[in-house]
Design brief:
This protein is α+β, with helices and mostly antiparallel strands. 61% of the residues lie in helices and 6% in strands. The protein folds into two domains: 158 residues, 2-Layer Sandwich (Alpha-Beta Plaits), CATH 3.30.70.260; 283 residues, no CATH class. It is elongated.
Length: 462
């Protein structure tokens, strides 16, 4: 298997037997010393490759689940130890508690975890006897491929080692792709909710009012955010599974998914455009995040970080830039296609809007706005100050559409003046009233604030 041969070292049968003897010896020593139940956790991997980054990551994910299960159920851990070698990983836990109740807790992990079939969690009583699944009313484990009794498949060698290895790799890849997609989509949802909740925002929908918008309110945004979250998740999975696809083809695939997301948004809001710009921006960022995972999942340099990998901000933005280059061609509308607000702003004022922001790595959102959120811990006040910075520096095509170049200039000047305000909320409320009266809405800057929040939630260290 090229996937694992590149990252792991094969071990011989003699090495495996020697490692098993050492585990049995350690189990006997721990049982003798503590006279308490002992949990021994390893991975069930066929073939000569027992240790490589993806397998190690799966092992540490299993450790996280076991320790979480024990803590949540108040099970004392008197001793813990972890071993890593080419012959595989092994974790030991000396615990206290009723043997059958402990077995039920451990089997629940094996039965419900997405890679639970690869977990081999043995429970030994103080006398060294192994507690079986049948003692708590569960059947023996089935084969991970066909579901038949695994002992029978092993004896008859129903499935080749290569088949078992490929199935295990697929289980592990899918597990972490879905965990990662959930993590990234949650960051996107939080970003949408934090942006709309920050109050007061000049000319924008917030908890207090609808600003310069008569066709939407706070709850319209909540409805939209709820239906878009599964699509952000899909963007991640598409990027992960198609990480080797040429960028133009991957971008076209993302465009199709984006249209589906737009349709879902319009259905949820009664035809109101709440997040079309963010479907593009956050969709691209989610796609880039998934592509990053797909490129690194087999050789995560930190497999002991259970769950999802840390995301380097620079790498995420670089991936997004590469994808976003495909969008710049869309600035000029086709002969029979009406221009969007962004396209009209480009044609009239030369403003390239969100497409250029994405193609340049979101410099406004990922720069000072991100730093302001970092410094303020993502608080509402830090969000409002980040918005003021964006209003004072970003070329908002929504403002150009509604107020022209003069309207944009006035908003930028006022935002600069308020950026150091000591009466932030009072001044922003007055600014809100002013923009609402003039029907000016800096929707582009609101989107950039949401992007800054997303980047902060996903890459808090930068």
């Amino acid at each position: 298997m090229d996937d694992i041969a590149k990252w792991g070292n094969p071990v011989s049968l003699e090495q495996m037997l020697a490692a098993r003897d050492l585990r049995v010896q350690k189990q006997a020593e721990l049982l003798h010393r503590y006279q308490r139940p002992l949990i021994c956790f390893t991975l069930n991997l066929a073939g000569p490759y027992k240790y490589y980054p993806l397998a190690a990551k799966t092992f540490f994910y299993g450790k996280q689940l076991i320790e979480g299960q024990l803590r949540q159920n108040g099970v004392p851990m008197l001793y813990t130890d972890t071993e890593q070698a080419d012959t595989g990983c092994c974790a030991y836990y000396v615990v206290e508690g009723d043997l059958l109740q402990l077995k039920a807790l451990l089997c629940a992990i094996e039965e419900t975890a997405p890679v639970g079939r690869l977990f081999d969690i043995d429970l030994l009583g103080p006398d060294g006897a192994k507690v079986s699944r049948t003692q708590i009313g569960l059947p023996e484990r089935g084969c991970m491929i066909c579901g038949a009794p695994s002992a029978g498949c092993a004896r008859s060698r129903t499935h080749s080692v290569e088949h078992l290895q490929r199935h295990a790799i697929l289980l592990m890849k899918n597990c972490f792709a879905h965990l990662y997609a959930d993590h990234v989509a949650t960051a996107a949802l939080r970003a949408l909710l934090y942006e709309v909740s920050a109050t007061p925002k000049p000319g924008l929908v917030d908890r207090a009012n609808s600003g310069a918008h008569q066709d939407m309110d706070f709850f319209t945004f909540l409805d939209s955010a709820a239906v878009l979250t599964p699509y952000f998740r899909k963007f991640v999975l598409v990027g992960c599974r198609q990480q080797s696809t040429p960028v133009p083809a991957l971008f076209r695939c993302a465009q199709s998914l984006g249209l589906m997301a737009e349709n879902a948004m319009f259905a949820a809001t009664g035809g109101v455009n709440t997040h079309k710009g963010l479907i593009f921006s956050l969709g691209l960022l989610c796609l880039a995040a998934g592509r990053l995972l797909g490129q690194t999942i087999l050789h995560d340099p930190h497999p002991d970080r259970a769950g999802v990998p840390a995301i380097p901000l620079d790498a995420l933005l670089h991936n997004c830039q590469e994808l976003a280059q495909c969008a710049l061609a869309g600035l000029t509308p086709g002969e029979n296609l009406p221009a969007t607000h962004g396209q009209r702003a480009f044609l009239q004022y030369g403003a390239r809007g969100v497409r250029a922001e994405a193609a340049n790595g979101f410099p406004n959102a990922a720069g000072a706005a991100f730093s302001i959120l970092q410094k303020g811990g993502g608080s509402e006040e830090s969000g409002l100050r980040a918005l003021l910075h964006l209003l004072s520096t970003a070329e908002d095509t929504n403002l150009l559409h509604r107020g022209g170049a003069d309207g944009l200039k006035q908003v930028m000047e006022t935002a600069r003046r308020l950026s150091t305000s000591v009466h932030l909320r009072e001044d922003l409320a007055a600014f809100d009233a002013q923009l609402t009266e003039k029907n000016l809405s800096p929707g582009g800057c609101a989107d950039l604030l949401a992007i800054a929040y997303f980047l902060y939630f996903l890459c808090p260290e930068g």
